[in-house]
Each structure stands twice: as structure tokens, then as C-alpha cells.
Fold TonB-dependent receptor.
Amino acid sequence: MKTKLRVIFTLILVCMTYLSYAQEKTINGTITDQDGLPLPGVNIQINGTHTGTQTDFDGKYSINATVGSVLIYTYIGQKTEERTVGNSSTIDITMQEDAQALDEVVIVGYGTSTKREVTDNIASVSSEDINLIPTPSVQSTLSGKAAGVQVTQVNGKAESGIKIRVRGVATISSSQEPLYVIDGVPMINSDENINDSPINPLVSLNPNDIESIEILKDASSAAIYGARGTNGVVLITTKRGKAGKTKVSINSSYGWSKPTNKRDFLNTREYVDLFTEATINSGGTEDDAAYYFNLFAENEADWRNNEVDTDWQDLALVDGSVEDFGVNVSGGSEKTQFFLSTGYNKTDAIIRGNKLERYSLRSNIDHTISNKFKVGISTGISKTKIDRLSNDNSFSTPLQAIAQLPFSKPYEDNGVVPNGSTLYYNFLFQEYNADHQVNIWRVLANLYGEYQITQSLKFRSEFGYDFNNQVEERFFGSLTESASTNGYADANAVENEKYVLNNYFSFDKTFSNIDFNAVAGMSYEDDRRRLQSVEGQEFPSDDLQTVDSAAEITGGGSSRTAYNFLSYFGRAGATIAGKYILKASLRYDGSSRFGKDERYGLFPAVSAGWIISEENFLKNNETLSLLKIRGSWGITGNAGIGNFASRSLFGGASYNERAALSPTQLGDPSLKWENTSQYDLGIDFGFFNNRISLEADYYNKNTSDLLLDQPVPSSSGFTSITQNVGELKNEGFEFVLNTKNFIKEDFFWSTSFNISTNKNEITELPGGDIISGRNIAREGETVASFYMVEFAGADPDNGDALFVRNTLNPDGTIDRSTTNEFNEASRVVSGSPFPDLIAGLSNTIRFKDFDMSFTFQGQWGASIYNDGGRFQSASADYFDNQTSDQLDRWQQPGDITDVPQARLFGANGTQQSTRYLQEADFIRLRNVTLGYTIPSEVTKKFQVERLRLYFTAFNLLTFTDYTGWDPESTADFNSNNDLAVGVDFYSAPPAQTLTLGINIDF
């Protein structure tokens, strides 16, 4: 009997225990780091199941689990935690920093690494930094964020080209742009404009889709890309899904824009006084001046009584707007993760008639077929429509309207733009009687398969595709500059496709105390471009605006071109005892662009690091948490030249109305790779558990076998030939300081500061000086140095413009006396278009539910030449309206001023000289963001995990002594001339944008 009771009692206990463990309950909790700050995005997984979730913005989570099940908590940079579900419904976790995964994961070529074990110099920008800046340009988000990286927008047009220079300029005539790699696909970076005004090649990319941007700066990191690594490599990684709860995020914002700066020009009274005086100074009379004024005024009272006073600048620079809307959905299971997004951006630029509209769609999917086989696809599709303007060197572009007389009317009383009643062509005709549109379809895709051969060895195959289709159409009606032809139109269609195939093995294994990893593989790229164009004139109506309606087809053509790369690469690295790091890489690159015997180049690199803080004598130091020294050396290449630059080419021609061939290019069959050898020495510090971290680097880059457009005698029938000629170097220092100033539960403040120097010098130029306009390439000087006569102000006795002779005396000294004869003065090197020093300062502050961030950016040491000043500040040389500095002109003997006497048609100091060369130093408050997150206790009542309202200001303040529109804006019409840089010619300033927005996460 007792035995039976014992059995029954045991069965009851077993059942009760089973029931208790099978009972499902809701577990809530908050996850923080060891400093007490909430950790958003922590993965929580029920062990052995596909059920999981993530923490919200406040580090909170909720999950249904049975008693006895095990919850696994994982987060990058933190140690994995496990908790068993018991009777309590609350599980709070304080995660501990993982010393082996210190800081963030860093993307490197064909793989990843951790910040701790990186021996290269890599700058990283996160999605949080990118999303703070309301601009359609991805590159603009990098301004001030990365040491040694200069980001410059050509001008204020919505689609304007962007120049990125990584550690200075490493070439002269070859491409100076970095290699852009998006999700493993080196993207097309060619400029397909038809009016010499560049379009940003990344304008089709939605910044909200980007997870991170890594900039590979030194040779050790960039050499894995070999031939294209000389100018740095920009790795762009888009967002991907994570296993867990499906997350829906919505971002919507609207911004108001205006020019960052407007200049002061003369009003009607000031203009009349100046030009009357200038006419008299040139031997004329007041009546002569009145005659001139009446040529451009409808009524004499317009200028004599100030009845018309037009501010043409206000007509050219207008208020703009930025609309941005995006939705993304991400999530998935252990087997399949997905990220889907759509975006819309509409930018009305601050230049009249300039607009951009972009639609984008992205789908990133990863699927685990088995425990060994994984596949995935990344696809981005975008459609961009741009209403374009003429380039800066055109009277039809808005900014040149400032040359018009202030007493000229822009409109008739009935609203119709007058024809022929202004000094120059009235640009407003372009708005009402012309059309210039570009439509760009862009497809970026990458399909991969990854097979885990063994626990340590895996194979990955990637197929990438980049498709850029650009159709640019222009129409100029019968009332525009094309009035003589009764209308003109053209159309240009470019189709550019790139196919990329990457196959590589990755090996990762720990041998005793050695962590070893290696990558080996090959890459093949094939780029094909097709162009069709047609143009016509004589249109029956301005309402018919396509070439199909032209009575006469005046031109057209088509062309095809292609190039390819074939590369083999390998990289091996080892970390010994967690403190000694070694890495080496080798790439063997072949390009169809070079001569038959010089197509392949070898690009090696090595680096090493020593984490001294892991040694026993420092390991437990309470002050010093990290001390690492590192060094690297490597060779990178440059192939940024024409597809057939090594070949002598012939093209079709017409001779006496018969088909013929004529030479079009002089080739050099021995043309080979341009090589840059670079070494980098760096040291990293971390103090007080890395609350303070410092990175310091010295780099030295030497470029040899420069791919240079060498001038040749015109008697050859050609103007230049591409050859390997000359050498140059860049060297400098970089410093990055990151601090966590305050870490409290309700208050957090961090700061990031970077500053870098660069000295550029041409060390060898066997062919001698290369002069392009006001710029020069000369041995011993900076690339594209300014080369011009030195201006010395106005002669106090007579108001003549004075120039420094700078001629050579018989004794070998330089004659520094002045002359009023421009031709008696010699040109001298007067400045550099590139800065010696660039810096950035960012701060992030969180107080309870409020957040704030801001970034300052600055540069020093560069010069900018205001080429438009020869017409805008010209001592009334011609009738163009003048800047307000003319009010300080010389007027009587004894006047001390830099503004010579006003003389109509007198050319008094308007020659190209340092009169119009100024320092381009500036400090700019690049962006400020203020945000407020509504407490989750409120939002969860509406099934919303996070709701944040924010205000962002972009280009809010600029401090500079430059008297032009903006020290960063440069002329776009010579953007393809690598020597003609640093020149401002009616170049529009960037936009200052104030934005209100909302982030919603479900």
C-alpha cells in the first residue's frame, strides 16, 4: 500500500513539474551596458527555437517564453549572456564589454575585422551619422567625420558633383576620385553630363539605406583593391535584416532651404554714380554716361530717379525645399532575414529652375539553406529626375544674372520677360522658354552564395551588376539664345553596364594561441558603355520640344566602348596571444587600358600591430585600457585614364565627301600602371575603460610613373599624349580624439574630434612645367598651384593698378618693385587650391528623452581664385554691375586702397592676378540636430515602439574671410581638368536647410 502511494505521489510531482515548465509567460526587461546606458537592437533568442526579439530604443524588450527555457542575449561588442526563465516575469541584463570585440565591427576588403585588431587606417561613419544630414548626396554626409578626408561639393546645384580627396592628391592627369564599392560591387563612377556640369555619380543612392561607410586610407587596407586604391577606397554597406521581430520604420521630413550667403552688389544710385565717374575718368562726359544708361533702360527715369532697382541676385538665388520620405521593413527568422525599403526625395534647389526628384527601392535578403550553405541578394533600384541648368560659364545660368544693370527690368508690366532690353541675355527666358531634363535609371545588384566547406574554411561567390541609364534632353525655344535658329533641341542617351564576378576562399582558425585568417580569390570586371545622340533646329512651335519635331537634323552620332579588369588577390593575417598582429596582402591586377606588355601590375602590402596593453605589465592598469602601435606599407595603383589611352587611334572622317580615316589619338604602347607607395605609422590609446581614446598617424605617399597628359608639339597634329612621367608625394599627420564626457542614466555626452595635415609636392617632372590657365604643375610645388602676377594695390598718386615685377635682377635677386604695366611683371607661384589642414568636431548629447548632435568642419591653407571677380569687381571696366567693394575705390591723390580708380574700358587691374586670389579658410557648422523621443509608456499604447520628433539644420553657420559666395564652391565647367581647380566663376553657394522630421518604429 505504501509503495502504491509513493508511486502516485511521484507521478503527481512529475506532472506538476511538467505543467510548471510548460507554462508560458511574458518576460519583460531592460538591457543596459556596464555604464548604465540602454542598448537598442540587442538580440534575444529562446535557445533551440526560432523565436526571438530585439530591444527597442530605450533598451527594453518583451518576449513570451516557458518556464525553464533559456534566453540568449547577443550584441556586437558585448559578451553573450544567458538567463533561465524562472518564476519572475522581469529579467534585466547588464551586458559586459567583450575585450575581444572592442568597438564596432569594421568592414574591410572581402571581409570584416574588429577595431581592436585592425592594423590599417580605416575611417568609419555609421548610419546614425549619415541620417542626420538632409541632403541627396551621400558624400556630403562624410564632411568633417573622417580625418584626412576632404569632401567638397562643386557648387550649390542639387545634383552637383562631389570631390573626395583621401590624404591629398596622388595624381595629376589621372582620376583623383576614390573607388566606390557598394555591397562588394565597384560601382560606375563616370560623369555622363553633356554641358560640362558634373552630376554626382552617387546621386541615385538613398542615404537612408546605408548601414555604414568605411574609408580605406592607407595602402595596407586599400591594396587589396590594387589598381584602384591609390585615391582611397570608400566601402558602402547597406542595411540588412536581423532575426527576430519584424520591425517597420518610417522616416518623414520636410526642410526649407536658402543660400548660405548672398553678396552685396551696387543699387541703382551707387551704380549710376560709379559709372558716371568711370566715364569721366576715361575722357568722357556725364552726357556720355547718360547715353550709355539709356541704352539699357526703358525710361530715363528708371536710372535718373531710381524708379527701377532690381536685385538680380534675388531672382537667381531663391528659397528651396527638401522633402524626404522613407519606409523600411526588416526582420526574419534564423533561416531568412530581410530588409526592404522604399524612399522618396524631392529637392528644390536654391538656384532658380534647379530641381531633383528621386524614387528608390531596395531589397536585401539572406537565406540559410543548410548549416553549410547560405545565399543572398542585394538589389537597389532608383529613378532620378533632374531639372538642370547650364554650366557656370554661360549667360543663361542664373548666377550670371548679377552682371545685369540694377535699373534693367526682369519682366514687362504684363509679366512677359522683355527681349533685348538687358545688358546680357536674360536667364529668365530659360525658365519659361527652355527645358533641360535628365532621367537616370540606376540598378545595383549583388547575388552571393557562401558554402562552409569545413568549420574553418568557406567559399564565397558573388555576381555583381551595375546599370546606369541616363537620358539627357534639352530644348531651347525661339525666344531663347537659339532665336536665330527658331529653336534648338538635342538628346543624349548613355547606357553603361558593369558586370563583376568575385570568387574567394576564407579561412579562419585558432591554433593554440594564434588566431589565423586568410582570403584568396579572383575578381573580374567588364564595363560596357553605349552612347546615342541627336540634335536638330527649326521648330514649328515652342510647344513641340523633342528632336522629332525639328525641321533640320544638324548632328548626331553613336559610340561604343568597353574595358575590363582581371585580378587575383590574397590576404593573410594572424593575431598571436591576442596582442601581436601581422597581416599581408597581394593583388595582381590586369587592365585592358594599358600596353600589351604592361597590362598587369603587382600590388603588395604588409602591416603589423602590437597591443601593448595586453602585456602583463599593463594588462590590469586602471588608467590605460588600450595601447596599440601599428605600422603598414604597401603599393596601390591608378588606372583612371581613357579606355584606349595606350593606343594610337583612328576615327571615321569625311574627305571630299568620301569616307576616310584620320588619326584621333597619339598612343604610347609602353603605358603602364601609376604606382603609389605608402607607409603609415600609428598609435592608439584608450583611457579609463576607453572613455577617452586617441588615434595618431603619420603617413607618407609617393606616386611614381604618373599617368600624365604630356603636351607635345602642335606640329605633330596632336596637343598631348598620355605617358608615365614624373613623381609626387603627400605626407601628413592625422589625429582622432573620442571622449565620453558624461555617462549617467539620464545624461550622456560624447565628443569626437579629428584634425589632419597634408603636404603635397611634385618631386619630379622631366618635361618641365605644365601650365593650364592660372594653374601650374611644377617640380617642387603643389599640384595645380596658382601661377599669376602679384597684385600690389592702387597707386596712391594716380589710382593706377600696381603689380610686383618679380623679375630676375642681374645679381640673381628678385626685383620686388612695383609697376603699373602688367606686362612688366612676371608670374609667380602664389598659392595652392588644396588645404594644409582640415578638421572636424562632432558632439552627441542625450538628456532623458532629448537628444542633440552637431558637427563643425573647417579647413585652412587653401586658396581660391575668384575668376568672376575680373568682371564683378573690375573698377567699372565694362557695364557689369559691381560688388560693393567698389565704394572704396581710389578717387583722389593720397587715397590708400586696394581698389584702383574706376575707368570705363580702362582695364585698370582686371588682368589675371592675385587681386582675385583669396584664402579659402573657413569653419562651418555643418549640421545641428535636436530630437525628442516620446516615452515608450505612451507610444506603446498605440502599438508604437518609438516615436521621435527632430529638427535638423544643415550648413547653419559659416565663418570665412572669403568675399565670394562660398569658399567651397568652384566652377563646374572645368571639372574634368585636374589642373584647373580652386576656381570660383559665378559658382552658387551651398544651401542652408532647416528640417523638421519624424521617426516612427513599429
